[in-house]
Amino acid sequence: MIDLVTLGETMVLFVPVETGSIKYVYQFNKQIGGAESNVAIGLSRLGIKTGWISKLGKDGFGDYIESFIRGEGVDVSQVKRDEQHPTGVFFKERRELGESKVYYYRKGSAASFINENDLDENYISQAKYLHLTGITPGLSESCCEAVYKAIEIAKKHDLKIIFDPNIRLKVWNNKDKMINILLDLIKKSDIVLPGLSEAKILINEDDKDKILDRFLNLGPEIVVLKMGEKGAYLGTKDKRVLVPGFQVPKIIDPIGAGDAFAAGFITGLTKRYELEESVKLGNACGAFALTVKGDVESLPSWDELKEFVGNSPELNR
Fold first, then answer.
1. Contact 167, 179 (CB under 8 A)
2. DSSP notation for the chain
């Protein structure tokens, strides 16, 4: 039995050993990166059973990704290998001053050819949650169709749909099309996890209460607005609560914090904690993600997470 199923692309990630312009960096560490698999791995480390649906090239990079994710306890039985198209790769650029950058080499990747036929209804139906992001529908028309098919299956079998907009402007060719599709996916979701910057893009709003109003009016039962170091703002039709974040003395790598938040929050939902306690777990996991280079290397175990949040009674039930 699987608690959560997710769908999306994972690539090989090359992280520079040194900071500075990628033009002058000569050594990289090989890791993996993909929003959906980040969440699946984060959940697995916290004791939640997860499955990841994707496509990889039939190449060494694909072997590496599949082996790594399987090794983290995620079910990869629904991952298909494509002999015609390669596994995608991307590079991070780390800077002490200014914003770090990400360079994608994913066009024509195996995962961009995911389609409806890659979905096994019986497999998805066994889960409690379907996790999706706004990255997958931007990869190709067939990927977008697969996302909508996954939602159709989830609704048929009463899965809760969790959607993280996870906006990647480099993935989409048309910004207006992106906004229309992502807002439509929000309407079809039960739980939505946007960031402040994403709300600004999607609904041109930066007031936290107005953001919750707008998103909740689209249909979700729960909206959690991620607000960085301030924490996260939880909204339902009955309550609004700002759950404070955790201070991180030194931020090493901010990329992946949103996925870590999702893993912690969904863990709380799965363990049937109160919503505020679940958001607290999300904030804690997000803090962990800031402390190490790479998307998944810093994600905590359940024991580490309990210790970090103070071993509260709620977490020891």
1. no
2. --SEEEE---EEEEEESS-S-GGG---EEEEEE-HHHHHHHHHHHTT--EEEEEEEESSHHHHHHHHHHHHTT-B-TTEEEESSSPPPEEEEE--SSS--EEEEE-TT-GGGG--GGG--HHHHHT-SEEEEESSHHHH-HHHHHHHHHHHHHHHHTTPEEEEE----TTT-S-HHHHHHHHHHHHHT-SEE--BHHHHHHHHS---HHHHHHHHHHHS-SEEEEE-GGG-EEEE-SS-EEEE-----SS-S--TTHHHHHHHHHHHHHHTT--HHHHHHHHHHHHHHHTTSSSSSTTPPPHHHHHHHTT--GGGG-
Give the start-to-end residue ranges of the domains of the chain. 4-301
List the structure tokens of 45.
């480390």
79-117 tens-digit pLDDT: 999 999 999 999 988 877 767 788 999 999 999 999 999
Residue 253's pLDDT band (cuts 50, 70, 90):
low
Rounded Cα–Cα distance for residues 147 and 132 (Å): 8
- Class of the domain covering 4-301: alpha beta
If pLDDT is split at 50, 70 and 90, which confidence band does 313 have? very low
What was the pLDDT predicted at 250? 65
Residues linked to residue 102 through DSSP beta bridges, in sequence order? 92
Rounded to whole angstroms, the Cα distance separating 52 from 100 reads 28
**Residue 259 falls in the annotated catalytic set:** yes
pLDDT tier for residue 308 given thresholds of 50, 70 and 90: confident
> Which of the following is catalytic: 75, 118, 253, 259?
259
Mean pLDDT of the chain: 92
Q: What is the mean pLDDT of residues 157-162?
A: 98
Q: What is the percent of the chain where pLDDT is above 90?
A: 78
Q: State which amino acid sits at residue 242.
A: L
